[in-house]
Structure formats: C-alpha cells, structure tokens
Amino acid sequence: MTNASPQIAAAPRASSAVGSGPDAGLFGEVSTLDVISFGIGVNQYGVPIMSVREIRGWSGATQLPHQPEYVRGVVDLRGVMVPIIDLRRRLGQGTTEATPTHIVIIVAIGERLVGLLADRVLDIVTFEKTSIQPVPRVAQGSGADCLSGLVSTNDAMIAIVDLSQLFSKEHAAATAVAVNNS
C-alpha cells in the first residue's frame, strides 16, 4: 500500500495534522502527509504544510553578527523578528545568490517563526507516510541531518526537511539571543 504518486491538494486538510489538533485521537493516526514542495537548484524538498505560515518573495534581510554561516539575517514580519535560513547553505550546497525571484517560506518550529530561503515553490504534494524512506547517512555534517526522509514521486524525489534539526543546539541559542537583542 505504498502509493507515492503525488496528488494536488487544493488546501490544507485536517488529515495533515499529524496526531495533533482537536480531532487527534478521534480518527486515529493519519496515514498521509501533505507537504509544500520547493526547489533548490535541481533538487526538490518539502516541509509539512501545517508548519507553513506564509510564502513571500525575497526582499533582503538585516544581517546580525556572530551567526551561523547559513543564517542570512532577520526580517521584520509584522513586528516579529524572523531569522532567515539559506537552505542551500545549510544543506552544504553553497550560498544562494538571492534575487527578487527567490522565495522565503515562513514556517513555525514550535512557537518560533523561521524563514527558509529557496529558489521556487513547486506544488502541494500528498503521499502515504509509509512511502517515506530513510535518508542514507553517508557523512557527518553533510546537511543530511536536516532531512527526515525521502519520497519518490512520479516526477522526482522529494527530501523532507526536518524543521526541528535546522539549527544545532549552539546555533539555536546564539540566534535566539541575537534576534532578541535586535
């Protein structure tokens, strides 16, 4: 029953809330996952749609001192300072030469908002959770620690970003201090 064929969803569905929300427990564990897929170079990545708060065009960021190399800076999102992560850099693929055609996906990681700089948004994809394969762990620090799994679709392979692993513990603490002091 591993059907990895993507289906286009018109909007986030209640089934996307993986074991959370007011209906959790009423209908049991959901078997599908909805993700926003996006591109970085020729590669496709995805984040759970229920974590996405908004998608905006790139308009620059204010750099902060003493940040990890993959933190581009912060943007003011309606009074909230949001750190922007260059996913290409975080995944060990070089630095994004950001232009107005690039996008920032604002996601919630717990109570915190974070922006993910990417090349383009591709689609909303729904797939069975059983179709998620583990990421091969070939090298330490290769960026693969930020990925929770891989899904093959008819068109491509989508690497699922593990939002909770985007910041190392040291980097998360340093970024939180710098953002709070700005």
Description:
A hairpin with a 2-residue loop joins strand 1 and strand 2. The protein has a five-stranded mixed beta sheet, with no helix packed on it. The chain has 182 residues and is mainly β. The protein has a single domain, classed as CheA-289, Domain 4 (OB fold (Dihydrolipoamide Acetyltransferase, E2P)), CATH 2.40.50. It is globular, with a radius of gyration of 16 Å. The chain is built from two helices and ten strands, in the order E-E-E-E-E-H-E-E-E-E-E-H. The protein has helices at 87-90, 169-181; strands at 32-40, 43-48, 52-57, 71-77, 80-86, 103-109, 112-118, 120-128, 147-152, 157-161.
Give me some keywords for this one.
182 residues; 5-stranded mixed β-sheet; mainly beta; 2 helices; 10 strands; globular; OB fold (Dihydrolipoamide Acetyltransferase, E2P); single chain
Question: What does the secondary structure layout of this molecule look like, with pairings?
Answer:
Elements: E1 32-40, E2 43-48, E3 52-57, E4 71-77, E5 80-86, H1 87-90, E6 103-109, E7 112-118, E8 120-128, E9 147-152, E10 157-161, H2 169-181
Parallel strand pairs: 2-10, 5-7
Antiparallel strand pairs: 1-2, 1-8, 3-6, 4-5, 6-7, 9-10
